[in-house]
Amino acid sequence: MLRQWCAEQPDPASTARYLDGIHPLGYCPETQVVADACASVLLSDKARFITGHIMHVSGGAELGYRKL
User: Fold this and answer.
1) Residues contacting residue 54 through CB under 8 Å, at least 6 positions apart
2) Residue 61 has what pLDDT?
3) How far apart are CA 62 and CA 50, in angstroms?
4) Is the dihedral of CA 40, 16, 65, 5 positive or negative?
5) pLDDT tens digit string along 5-35?
6) pTM of this prediction?
7) Are 37 and 55 in contact (CB under 8 A)?
8) Which residue in 65, 60, 57, 58 sits closest to 19, CA to CA?
């Protein structure tokens, strides 16, 4: 939804650069990062004792966005 919103802005390329720039890791994530987290952790047998947990797949956004 964020990428769709970005494409609808007057200057999509500038908006995309801004979104990439404010994220602590330097890029705005795609939906695949959530699927990757689930596949690498929750589908593993090593997660067999996890019954409920909030997993922050945020690239550090909870620490605050970078100021440009």
Assistant:
1) none
2) 78
3) 23
4) negative
5) 999 999 999 999 998 988 888 888 888 888 8
6) 0.65
7) yes
8) 65
Residue 23 and residue 16: Cα distance in Å, rounded? 11
Q: How many residues does the chain have?
A: 68
| Percent composition of the chain: helix, strand, coil (DSSP 3-state, to 5) | 50, 0, 50
Residue 12 parent element (H or E): helix 12-22
Q: Which two tokens stand for residue 32?
A: 């695949």
**CA separation, residue 61 to residues 3, 18, 44, 45 (Å):** 17, 14, 26, 29
The answer to whether 68 touches 22, Cβ cutoff 8 Å, is yes
Place of tokens 């090593």: 46
Q: Is the distance from CB of 28 to CB of 15 less than 8 angstroms?
A: no
